[in-house]
Amino acid sequence: MHAGDGSDERAVVAATAETPRAALVPDDTRVAAFFDVDNTIIRGASSFHLAVGLYRRGFFRNFDLVRFAVQQARYRVFGEDREQIDELRTRALDIMRGRSVAEVTAIAEDVYDEVLSLRIYPGTRALLDAHLAEGHAVWLVTATPVEIGELIARRLGASGALGTVAEHENGFYTGRLVGDLLHGEAKASAVRALALREGYDLRACHAYGDSTNDVPILSTVGHPCAINPDGRLRRHAAEVGWPVREFRSRRRQARRGVNAASLAGLAWAVAVVVRAVSRSIRRRVGAG
Fold first, then answer.
1. Residue 180 is a catalytic residue
2. Other C-beta atoms within 10 Å of 14: how many?
3. Cα–Cα dist 272/92, whole Å
4. Cα–Cα distance between 133 and 226 in angstroms, integer?
5. Which of 278, 283, 276 is nearest to 57 (CA)?
């Protein structure tokens, strides 16, 4: 999706039209809160954990999981990088071509129960619940596929999700996107289009994000807040006077040097691959 392209904005909003909405208090129908997902609601990249779930069900090769794990480690240490995200998007779309939407959605449900539900920041969850208690609409806005965003939104009781839309025909992914990746300025464009459709007063709305790439969406609302910010967003927030909320443990706040948690995640993913290869070798030897 490209900022300023009205047709793309409408496409993203249309993709969320059937998403369940929270009940709103009549006096607050024009207020919404917009939450980024990765490192704002969920520790790490939700797409990586979905990739692990797909790998375990034979969707792609051992090498692909290691590649995703390396990118997850880089993301955790250095934050988002557009070139990195584009590379992952291209590979992911190629892997998903011809796969059933229903099958992937079912796997995503399992991944949420097994992994993602355990990685939600309690502090962010409390903020989200507070908005719902106030009668505000709550939307997740993420570069993650919209199906994953909607799943997380539904499990958290949120109103819906805006996300990257992967094209599918007759219930199967084509390997192409509808519009572009929902990232950076594209997030802000989608929020503005949604606000126009739903009648939200953006001056009264709230937004939460962790990365400098969330500055456009944070700048769109009257009440921005940086959550678990990367270094650049933290500096920007200090310059413009945005509040900052930190829900990571002290150890996880460190961004310098090698991040032990990221290396542990990478080692875990590699261990999954090694175990799978070992089992495959043992089966072949036994069959021989």
1. no
2. 13
3. 19
4. 21
5. 276
Residue given tokens 């539904």 in the structure block: 154
- 38 as an active site residue: the answer is yes
**List of residues 6+ apart from 185 with CB closer than 8 A:** 3, 216
d(C-alpha 173, C-alpha 94), whole Å: 10
For tokens 């409390």, the residue is 126
Which residues, including other chains, have CB under 8 Å from residue 50's CB and lie 6 or more apart? Answer: 107, 108, 111, 148
Strand ranges in the chain using DSSP code E only, listed in sequence order: 32-35, 137-145, 160-169, 172-178, 206-209, 223-227, 244-245
CA 108, 104, 181, 18 dihedral sign is: negative
User: For the segment 244-260, what is each residue's pLDDT rounded down to a tens digit?
Assistant: 999 987 655 544 333 44
pTM to 2 decimal places: 0.73
- In this structure, the number of other CB atoms found within 10 A of the CB of residue 280 comes to 11
pLDDT grade for 8, boundaries at 50, 70 and 90: very low
Question: Which residue of the set 38, 180, 210, 214 is catalytic?
Answer: 38
- Condensed to tens digits (0 to 9), the pLDDT of residues 77-122 reads 555 555 555 665 666 666 778 888 898 889 889 989 988 999 999 9
Query: What's the pLDDT tens digit per position in 20-37?
Result: 343 334 444 589 999 999
Q: What does the alpha-carbon distance between residue 243 and residue 64 come to, in Å, rounded to a whole number?
A: 39
Within 10 A of 20 (CB to CB), how many other CB atoms are there? 11
Q: Which amino acid is at 130?
A: A
For the stretch 154-171, pLDDT in tens is 999 999 999 988 888 999
- Cβ-in-10-Å burial (0-12, 13-18, 19+) of 262 comes to buried
Yes or no: say if 28 and 211 are a contact pair by the CB < 8 Å rule: no
